[in-house]
Design goal:
The structure holds two protein chains of two kinds.
Chain A: H1 7-15, H2 21-39, E1 42-45, H3 47-58, E2 71-75, H4 102-109, E3 113-118, H5 152-159, E4 165-170, H6 176-182, E5 185-188, E6 208-213, H7 216-226, H8 244-251, E7 260-264, H9 274-289, E8 293-297, H10 305-320, H11 339-350, H12 353-366, H13 372-392, E9 398-402, H14 418-423, H15 429-434, E10 438-446, E11 449-456, H16 462-475
Parallel strand pairs in A: 2-3, 2-4, 7-8, 7-9
Antiparallel strand pairs in A: 1-3, 4-6, 5-6, 5-10, 9-11, 10-11
Helix pairs in contact in A: 2-3, 5-6, 7-16, 8-16, 10-12, 10-13
Chain B: E1 3-14, H1 53-65, E2 69-70, E3 73-74, E4 76-80, E5 90-94, E6 100-108, E7 114-126, E8 130-132, E9 141-143, E10 150-156, H2 163-179, E11 192-202, E12 212-217, H3 220-239, E13 247-252, E14 257-263, E15 273-274, E16 281-282, H4 285-294, H5 299-310, H6 314-320, H7 324-337, H8 341-363, H9 374-385, H10 391-402, H11 409-416, H12 424-437, H13 439-446, H14 453-463, H15 470-482
Parallel strand pairs in B: 12-13
Antiparallel strand pairs in B: 1-10, 1-11, 2-6, 3-16, 4-5, 4-15, 6-7, 7-10, 8-9, 11-12, 13-14
Helix pairs in contact in B: 1-4, 2-3, 5-6, 7-8, 7-9, 8-9, 9-10, 12-14, 12-15, 14-15
The chains are: A alpha/beta, B alpha+beta.
Protein name (chain B): Aspartyl/glutamyl-tRNA(Asn/Gln) amidotransferase subunit B
Subunit structure (chain B): Heterotrimer of A, B and C subunits.
GO molecular function (chain B): asparaginyl-tRNA synthase (glutamine-hydrolyzing) activity; ATP binding; glutaminyl-tRNA synthase (glutamine-hydrolyzing) activity; transferase activity
Chain lengths: ~475, ~475
């Protein structure tokens, strides 16, 4: 059963020719064909190109590359040459990218086979995957529930075993939250670690590519291939990328021994669902049992994160999405009567409601007379939030917290209540604003729905996150659980 | 009522880089539409800008040349508006923290006095594409070749008080950026674009009047005319009891008038904010000093040096340094004459600003396209200086060089047999003949009408076909007539 094996196992099977890349690709394509009508995790399936690519790898392409022959899926926010790149929007329904994002290029260089493009909230704006032009993704653990967002398609596809790993992007929690809600392992690296070139921008100062897989060990292998400086992204950081898998191998089970882990009291205050709290507390007890020192810390500006984020992210989004004007590519309205009409209707018809809402908010907070009160003030509170973390990391090695206040909610439940939807990100937004690396690790279940443990580390300490998660996964089996019907 | 004119200029200086400010696409002018626009320039989803380091260096050179502050930290900001030739829906510019601030340029006014014009700021930005309305039936064509071309926008203080001052400032700036090698200065191709902010106020008033901004002025002559028109228009409006509307106006050179383009009520809220795709530009002292070391000699310094080194008048020195190409031509000419350079400055200046510039104007040529090279002109000046030919014959040799009738002055002198006759025996023959042929004039001279010697010299020159050395002819005639 190839879909239950780890990436390391699959890689060694492929290298030993126990299985061919074509066979592995066919296996996952079959699972997609069998399950994806129900889950809707993929916007585009690339069966033909995937088969050709797998055959080429069997014939020697990318021989010896770390992930040669490994099937993956890319969030539809990453540009893929010759393949529709929709970003979950009607606006780009007809857009076939003429180039590959750096992430796509690097993973291809590592030998991966792309099976398809995963569903997502439109332009990554949403926490439930319900804003996609291509319909909601369903949570494999209970298909009446949301998978989280915005990278919901990637998280659900990995959870259902349709792909061993998938890429995602996290602006305010878009990797960690769906990873938590779908019971998979997800990592958002430090801002600047993974190139943003070719990743369609939502909020440039926050967007960061990352990945989903079944375990920390698998995430390490995929993240390794994605990471590193890219001259095409001015915000990419020129800094050596450690060998993540080697770190896990060398420290393994002992990683948590002596590690000082901070629990921010603000993340365990009112609002956290009791059952979820118990799951998180049990996970922390396991950390302690494995030698971690647990201390309470404070991140005093946590309550400013939601309002800060919902000023800055829409501001940047309103600007980043200005290029979608119906002129050069993408959706154009029928028979525009003049330029004004072309703009108004192309954007009015091409963008969904949530995207329009954020563009309006963003344009408002940047407009003359409001800029200082909103945008500038939010930049200041953002710095306060970041300073909370740098102060905290003076005393602790790692921060552990819940990812969400509660497990997945029902489809449609919060769709007409944007503020309640926004509050869903209350535990993931602060680290995004600070640009910190974060992970979600499966930690248990509440009423059959997964709960994720959030781990945060200092800037560029992805190996610490992966090491801690890996050690935890050595003595727990939450990450190996499979939703019924997708075994 | 007497009115005072107040003018400030905003000049867009296109930087002469090979590639664009944020992409690797080439900047060359005149290519097929949309063949020089990369994924970044057409703003495909997902692309990101990366700053071209040359642009920072050029802006720094410019800042140093206008004696401005170079910002240790400057920030790119997004300026938002929707237009089909603006692919991203925003222009990357600089807003609160420009790279250059607090500079100045000293101009020489037509009456010879100097005036200092303040330069508030100069910031970097990218150009937009072009909308082509003519070539298509009911549609508009978009050419994005120009999108992303690097510009410095240089904003002056409202320090100018007449169209003539504005033109002097614009010309000075135009010469400066070419001196620095950061702009080709081609106004027809839009490499140097001037917008004029013009207002008028009663003489003695300390408050500024409402200003208009006039765009689309693509020559210095049009700048002068546009400002003059605008000043008259504003005075007419005010004197007939009206009010000036703050607006953008377009100069129409065919009608020689400015017309309203858009008023402030329609003006955009550009919603500037720092571009999160680009890091702040950090410039340290070492970078500035390296740029300073690279600065060429600037026009004012060159003018002073020309005046001192070549014994030129201030006016001649200013004229010769009005462009780097002209100044280079002058120095190359002087060098080609050889010997004591100080002695050849004046004749070289006279030749260049006289015959050469006249001939170039006649043919509509720029100095860099001169058919007479500096080496050729220097060779000619040397032959006049060493009396091989007279100045008058020199003009014929110059014309021959200009027409390409020979490779050098020497070759032409040789081929045409123009060598001056300095052999006293030969000259004496001509002189004796002329004295013999013109007894009346000789008589008049001897009776005290010494001016008549000019006529006699002319006769000798004529007889020698212009080749006799006029100085020797003069001396010999004077001696013989005194006998």
């Amino acid at each position: 059963m190839s879909h239950t094996r780890s990436i390391r196992e699959l890689a060694s099977d492929l290298a030993a020719k126990k299985i061919s890349a074509v066979e592995l690709t066919e296996h996952f394509l079959k699972r997609i064909a069998a399950h994806d009508e129900r889950l809707n995790t993929l916007i585009s399936r690339n069966e033909e190109s995937a088969r050709e690519r797998a055959a080429a790898i069997d014939a020697g392409d990318n021989a010896g590359a770390a992930l040669a022959g490994l099937p993956i899926a890319h969030k539809d926010i990453f540009c893929t040459r010759g393949v529709r790149t929709s970003c979950g929007s009607r606006m780009l329904d007809n857009f076939v990218a003429p180039y590959d994002a750096t992430v796509v290029e690097r993973l291809a260089g590592a030998g991966t086979v792309t099976l398809g493009k995963t569903n997502m909230d439109e332009f990554a704006m949403g926490s439930s995957n319900e804003t996609s032009f291509y319909g909601s993704v369903r949570n494999p653990w209970n298909t009446d529930y949301v998978p989280g967002g915005s990278s919901g398609g990637s998280a659900a596809a990995v959870a259902a075993g349709l792909v061993p790993a998938a890429t995602g992007s996290d602006t305010g929690g878009s990797i960690r939250q769906p990873a938590a809600l779908c019971g998979v392992t997800g990592i958002k690296p430090t801002y600047g670690r993974v190139s943003r070139y070719g990743m369609i921008a939502f909020a440039s100062s926050l967007d960061q590519g990352g990945c989903f897989a079944r375990s920390a060990e698998d995430c390490a292998a995929v993240l390794q291939a994605m990471s590193g400086f890219d001259a095409r992204d001015s915000t990419s950081v020129e800094r050596e990328v450690p060998d993540y898998s080697a770190v896990l191998d060398s420290q393994g089970d002992d990683f948590l021994e002596g590690l000082k882990v901070g629990l921010p009291k603000e993340y365990f205050a009112e609002g956290l669902d009791d059952a979820s709290r118990k799951v998180i507390e049990a996970a922390i007890a396991e950390f302690e049992a494995r030698g971690a020192e647990i201390v309470e810390i404070t991140l005093p500006h946590t309550d400013l994160a939601v309002s800060t984020y919902y000023v800055l992210a829409p501001a940047e989004a309103s600007s980043n999405l200005a290029r979608f004007d119906g002129v050069r590519y993408g959706y154009r309205c029928e028979n525009p009567v003049d330029l004004e009409d072309l703009y108004t209707r192309s954007r009015g018809e091409g963008f969904g409601r949530e995207v329009q809402r954020r563009i309006m908010v963003g344009a408002y907070v940047l407009s003359a007379g409001y800029y200082d009160a909103y945008y500038l003030k939010a930049q200041k509170t953002r710095r306060l939030i970041a300073r909370d973390f740098s102060d905290a990391f003076e005393n602790v090695d790692l921060i552990a917290a819940p990812v969400t206040q509660a497990p997945a909610f029902k489809l449609g439940e919060k769709l007409d209540d944007p503020v309640s939807m926004y509050l869903n990100d209350v535990y993931t937004l602060p680290a995004s604003l600070a640009g910190l690396p974060g992970m979600s690790v499966p930690a248990g279940f509440v009423d059959g729905l997964p709960v994720g443990l959030q781990l945060l580390a200092p800037w560029f300490e992805e190996s610490r996150l992966l090491g801690a998660a890996h050690a935890y996964q050595q003595s727990t089996d939450w990450h190996t659980k499979r939703p019924a019907g997708f075994e | 009522m007497a009115w005072e004119t107040v003018i400030g200029l905003e000049v867009h200086i296109q930087l002469a880089t090979r590639s664009k400010i944020f992409s690797t696409a080439p900047t060359a002018y005149g290519a097929e539409p949309n063949t020089q626009a990369s994924a970044v320039d057409i703003a495909l989803p997902g692309v990101l800008p990366v700053i071209n380091g040359q642009v920072i260096r050029m802006a720094t050179l410019f800042g140093l040349a206008i004696d401005a502050d170079i910002a240790p930290k400057s920030v790119f900001a997004r300026k938002h508006y929707f237009y089909p030739d603006l692919p991203k829906g925003y222009q990357i510019s600089q807003f609160e923290l420009p790279i250059v601030a607090n500079g100045h340029l000293d101009i020489v006014l037509p009456d010879g006095t100097e005036k200092r014009v303040g330069i508030t700021r100069a910031h970097l930005e990218e150009d937009a594409g072009k909308s082509l309305h003519e070539a298509f039936d009911r549609d508009t064509g978009i050419d994005l070749n120009r999108a992303g071309t690097p510009l410095v926008e240089c904003v002056s203080e409202p320090d100018m008080r007449s169209a003539a001052e504005a033109v002097a400032y614009a010309r000075k700036l135009h010469a400066l950026v070419q001196y620095l090698g950061i702009c080709d200065g081609n106004m027809q191709e839009g490499s140097f674009r001037v917008d004029a902010n013009v207002s008028v106020r009663p003489v003695g008033s300390s408050e500024f009047g409402t200003r208009t901004e006039t765009k689309n002025v693509n020559s210095f002559r049009f700048l002068e005319k546009a400002i003059e028109f605008e000043v008259e228009r504003q005075i007419d409006v005010l004197e007939s009891g009206g009010k000036i509307v703050q607006e953008t106006r377009l100069y129409d050179p065919d009608a020689d008038e400015t017309r309203s383009m858009r008023s402030k009520e329609e003006a955009h809220d550009y919603r500037y904010f720092p571009d999160p795709d680009l890091l702040p530009v950090i410039i340290d002292a070492a970078f500035v000093e390296a740029a300073r070391a690279d600065l060429p000699e600037l026009p004012d310094a060159k003018r002073e040096r020309f005046a001192a080194e070549y014994g030129l008048s201030r006016e001649d020195a200013a004229a010769l340094t009005s462009s780097r190409a002209l100044a280079n031509y002058f120095e190359a000419t002087v060098a080609a004459v050889g010997g004591e350079t100080a002695q050849h400055g004046k004749p070289a200046a006279n030749w260049i600003m006289g015959d050469l510039s006249g001939a170039l104007n006649r043919e509509g040529l720029a100095i860099v396209d001169s058919p007479v090279s500096a080496e050729q002109l220097g060779g000619l000046i040397a032959r006049v200086a060493d009396n091989t030919i007279s100045g008058k014959i020199g003009k014929d040799v110059f014309e021959a060089l200009f027409k390409g009738e020979g490779d050098s002055a020497d070759a032409i002198i040789e081929a045409k047999g123009l060598k001056q006759i300095t052999d006293t025996g030969a000259i004496e023959g001509f002189v004796d003949q002329v004295i013999a042929d013109n007894p009346d004039q000789v008589q008049q001279y001897r009776e005290g009408k010494t001016k008549v010697i000019g006529f006699l010299v002319g006769q000798v020159m004529k007889a020698s076909k212009g080749k006799a050395n006029p100085k020797e002819v003069n001396q010999m005639l004077a001696a013989k007539l005194a006998e």
